[in-house]
Amino acid sequence: MTSTPEPVRRKPLAERALAARVNAVPPSGIRRFFDIAATMKDVISLGVGEPDFDTPRRIVEAGVESLREGRTHYSSNYGTIELRRALADLLQRRYDVTYDPETELLITIGASEAVDVALRSTCDPGDEVILHEPSYVAYVPAITFAGGTTVHVATRFEDDFALDPAAVEAAITPKTKAIFLGYPCNPTGAVLPDRVQEELARIIEKHDLLVYSDEIYDRLAYGSYRHRVFSSLPGMRERTILMGGFSKAYAMTGWRIGWLAAPAHLLAGIVKVHQYAIMSAATMTQDAALAAVLDCEADVEAMRAEYDRRRRLIVDGLNAMGLETFEPLGAFYAFPRITSTGLDSNEFARRLLEEEQVAVVPGDAFGPSGEGHVRCCYATSYERIEEALTRMARFVERCRSEQT
Q: What total number of domains does the chain contain?
């Protein structure tokens, strides 16, 4: 008679089921405040970064017509050639950078998937990725899930949160694989001035690095700032994985459609990860995105102009109540300094929500250098921003009186 082997001695499944890299990533610092806000009445949210505009009618109609015409099957793994050609034309016209729509453009499930597949396709375990912070909350987890290691470079209020090239170069080690850029920046609204871009390009070429550039907010630029994609800089096209999408400029968050552009030898690898994980983006969503590119420039400009109007209101209002706020030239966020209230970022956000029913995001959700700030999204109506500022001013005055 054969004996039954003894069970292998190890920790209970409940303690080891999730991968260590998943356990190492905390829940989003953005969502917890909005879970609370969802249970409250009369809340004005300056929190989640989503346009308050509906998707333009022509885009919706294109999506509906796609369904009616029976376009309900898989597209190419790369995406429909019509959309890729339209995007290639757009990038050429706006930024004077050329991509072959056949081999250098990929349609993704939002810019979020573009970030994910870019990192998972190119990061080996132990590779270091230099990332500015404060930065969007999903970047560090995406690097971690890809097996990479994040090396933070802090940005400062005093520099309008622009990245310091000297600090970037000081962070480079033999393990550095890439630099990750997310400009215009969520959460700060900061942009990269031309001179900073050019110095970063010099450093990247000198140290033979890759660039991940998430430019989802490229169309939301204000004042004298004129955006240029990082791959358009001399020598950077062959080093840059450029990512973007339709969520912000075209008010298409729920459609989940984005894109990635890269040299053909890189894209051939990236599409492997995409095709095995996703297969292809939804065909009707791609048809809607094609209408956005071809027919909705006036809609983009109208929304951008309204964001600009709100931007001036919120920046002036925050500064007037004594919350120092630099002028954001991109995206749709303000990032006021709240240290004058005597509260840290989390306490400020918690109390503001509880006492005045205004939701903002604590700055440290975006990295340690965000402490002392909160993120205020102005993708909500002008009138609601006015009311939010009234409530915030009342709250700030109350906090200061508590200090005396």
A: 2
pLDDT in tens, 86-145: 999 999 999 999 999 999 999 999 999 999 999 999 999 999 999 999 999 999 999 999
CATH code of residue 394: 3.90.1150.10
Ramachandran region, residue 136 (left: φ > 0; alpha: ψ -120 to 50; beta: rest): beta
Q: Domain containing 250 — which CATH number?
A: 3.40.640.10
Residues in CB range of 161: below 8 A, 6 or more apart: 134, 155, 185, 188, 189, 190, 326, 335
Residue spans of beta strands (DSSP E) within 227-319: 240-245, 258-261
**Domain ranges, residue 31:** 21-54+298-403
What's the CA gap between 375 and 392, in Å, rounded?
13
Q: pTM score, two decimals?
A: 0.94
Which of 281, 296, 311 is the last residue in one of the domains? 296
Nearest 5°: CA angle at 67, between 62 and 70? 125
Other beta carbons less than 10 A from residue 214's beta carbon: 31
- Per DSSP bridges, beta strands 44-45 and 358-359 are parallel
* Same domain as 271, residue 306: no
Query: How far apart, in Å, are the Cα atoms of 231 and each of 201, 263, 300?
Result: 10, 10, 23
DSSP 331-389: TTEE--B-GGGT--HHHHHHHHHHHH-EE-EEGGGG-GGGTTBEEEE--S-HHHHHHHH
For residue 165, which of 193, 184, 135 has the smallest C-alpha distance? 193
Q: How many angstroms separate the CA atoms of 14 and 18, rounded?
A: 8
SS3 assignment, position 214: strand
Regions of the chain where pLDDT drops below 50: none
Looking at the structure, do residues 208 and 319 belong to the same domain, yes or no? no
Is residue 250 one of the residues assigned to a domain? yes
Which of 272, 296, 320 marks a domain boundary? 296
What tens digit of pLDDT does each residue of 199-236 get? Answer: 999 999 999 999 999 999 999 999 999 999 999 999 99
